[in-house]
Amino acid sequence: MYSLRVKKISSIKLYPPCKIFIAIYIEANKNEKSDALEIPKFKLGSSIFSRLIVTFLIIIIPIYMLGIYINSWSLYTVKNEISKSTAAQVSFYLEGLEKEIERIKILQYDCLNDEYLNKLAIRWNIMNMYERVESLRQLQQRLVTIKNSSIYIKNVNAYIFPAGRTVSSNTGIDNIDMEGYREIRVPADIKGAQIINFKGGLYLSTLQQKNISNTSPLYLIAIELNQDALEQALAQFNTLEGSGSILINLTDNGIIMNKSDAADTLSIDSVLDNLDKNGSSGMVFNKTEHTKNYIVYAKSNYLNMILLKYIPEEFILKPLWSYYIWVWVFSIVSVCIILIYSFSTYKFMHKPLATLVKAFRKVESGDLQVSINHDSNNEFGYLYKRFNNMTRNLNTLIDQVYNQKILMQRAELKQLQSQINPHFLYNSFFMINTMAKVGDENLIPFTKHLGEYFRFVTRNSSDYIPLSDEVNHAGVYTSIQLMRFSKRVQIQFAQCPEMYSDLKVPRLILQPIIENAFEHGIEKKKNGGIIRINFEADEKGLNIIVEDNGDEMADARLSELQKALEYSREDTQITGIININRRIKLVFGEKSGLYVFRSELGGLKVILKIKISGGDDHAQIADCG
């Protein structure tokens, strides 16, 4: 499944497990860039789950708004149709009443030309008793005929001023009632059928216009309308409980006919103020402290009246309740669809993806023992199974590569140390031979120091020792060299910082640098040779500085040495300095190692850098060695 292609095991640095996983995974995927393995921390706005929900809402919200619009339009249409239907009923009644009143007015006008009425008005004073009685009887008969012509007529009166008599279709002949005449008389300049409200009765009056002699009218015909018949007709509209009808005279805004128990609560004046003055019919909503009503109205210009029919709000809205119910059902179903979609998306997509991302983050943090437990057989089940197989194979590969790397490093360290020991051994024997020949008194101390030196380098208990032991060993070495070059060499050896005295470091990293300063720096100087060993420490690491005042290091050689330390390869010839540089980098990382410069003293300056930041894992490995 995976093809591990590692050209050289030794070229892989001693990474923590997370970094080793990344390195192996890159090799296993044909050297893809490591950036591709970085798992981003998803924000809410950029997650797949939130985008799916937003996309679904973008789809469902217009559909929901369209449904609300269609419902609102349906409610408006139904409400408008109810309004039109009720207004049509009111207008039909008012038109019928208008036609009936007009017919009555025609009969009334026709009666003005009645033969017997004119005889009584003109010839009353010259008529004998018989003529008067006969004319009055004939006139009354005419009035009864008019009264019987319509159910809306209650009584017909003829006021005859010259005779001083009032002829009634109901009560017969009586003396003239001047108060009634004055109240029900309509001015001649008013047009239309004016209905007069007098003493609780409704009257239509028509009088004779001025005659040729320009005297006052001689007679007046007054028809009293049947209010019971009008109320019965209005009652036909009150089919709904709580509804009512009101007939209003616009001349004085007085109520002519009220088939309602709510005239007072309706606030008639405010209702009339809200009506469309120019429209003949319509519907308005009236709200008071105790009632809410829809008022349908129709206006008659001929009668100068307006008919109001009020219907309680609940009866108008009752046919619309089913629409409201379906709106709520539609809204609840829409919300349920959104919730179900969100939950199913979370359960079947976001949650499995989150589980997979969480597992990858654990692997990224170095936990390669993670395994996803699942029982699904869908696409995510396949991904989980492949992920578990991948982690198992990676664990196997890491175990092989990591263990091989450690074994190879330990073998390489042993080999490098073995290259150091013979080099110094040859020089030491040469020095003993020389001192024995000349009978040097320092031979005994020299051999003692030499014994301590070789006891240190040949001790195989551990490849890593405390820094203080390494510094003490370097001190033993400088003591040996001082016995040889005491007359022309000065050594300035600073104290090891206490905070780093227990730091575990590879063996033999400081002494070869000092040895290099002796051999290549001041060995050929006849006097005034200086070697200075200083320590610069902080929380991030330690710098050990070894410099001399030798003048044998040319700029070309210094540049060559710098390049050798910076670009050391497997096939590079191993020298003491390169040896130490590679060992330090193997243990403490690439930021550590040796760096060479021109010293202020004039010779070579070697800085041994040990970076603690990022090197803790290696120090721990050193502890285990």
From TrEMBL:
Residues 347-399 form the HAMP domain. It is found in: Membrane. Its main location: membrane. Keywords: Kinase, Membrane, Phosphoprotein, Transferase, Transmembrane, Transmembrane helix. GO terms for cellular component: membrane. GO terms for molecular function: phosphorelay sensor kinase activity. This is Two-component system sensor histidine kinase YesM. The lineage of its organism: Bacteria, Bacillati, Bacillota, Clostridia, Eubacteriales.
